[in-house]
Design brief:
It holds the Pfam family GGACT. The chain is of the alpha+beta class and 137 residues long. The protein has two helices and seven strands; from the N terminus they run βββββαββα. The strands form two sheets. The protein has a five-stranded mixed β-barrel with strand order 1-5-2-6-7. The longest helix has 11 residues.
Amino acid sequence: MDAGRLPVFVYGTLRPGEANHGLLRGRTAAETPAVLSGALLYEGPGYPYAVDDPGGGEIHGELIDPLPQVYEAVLADLDRLEEYVPGAPGNLYERVAREVRPTSGRPRSAWVYFAAPATARVLRANGVPIRSGDWRR
């Protein structure tokens, strides 16, 4: 995959078998189990939030490689779903490039949707962490 086209790490409703995975169905070249370190997972209203946690923590999910011919369309659809607009102050999530470890293979840079700063502050203060790091558990 070209360096400007990162895979996407999904950890909630976009995972295979979950409610929003249909957005990806037939549009991926690979879906690989993976782990994101340095982050915590919090319960949300029917979906989880990832929050930076440089001191530890890890989140389990899948590394999604969109098909090259639909890459831009997939990323645009994911941005809409996650209510992310580059530079917008009211974003629900922020899309950030981070290193993710597939369960087999070497670490890769990937897009990760993290809770936007205002939401992350509320979650750190009052949120319910998902200690296993796996929203499915």
